[in-house]
Amino acid sequence: MAPHPESTVDNGNTFEDLSGIASSLSDNPYDTLIDACKNQTEEIQARYAKHRETRNGVQTEKFRSKAFSGVSIDSTLHKLVNPERYPNFADTRHCLVFWARPPSSVKSLIADLQQQLLTVAPSGCVRSKRKG
Known about the structure:
Layout: E1 6-8, E2 14-16, H1 29-36, H2 41-64, H3 75-80, H4 104-118
Antiparallel strand pairs: 1-2
């Protein structure tokens, strides 16, 4: 598999552009996507779908590999869910998120996956189970 262009983000993870768009001068991958698609909604959706499908394939290969050593814990989320261990931690990131309500079948699948993840999560990473 050919290497993909990467840009490093502050948490040590990388964003790999798998949409087929060449990198730009912007540090924001969404700016690059929008510019490359000339702000055309259908093109943005098609390119992001390509990115998502390719990323899912790459991640599936990694998870199924015998060399897979485990997941990386997001340090910011870890600190947010453990305020007793990090009482002065403040998340300084800014993000705009659009939420949608998934159907009950998706919520049930997510709940099952979360329960499975709890069985393999390192000790201290999970504070409490949320109701909902």
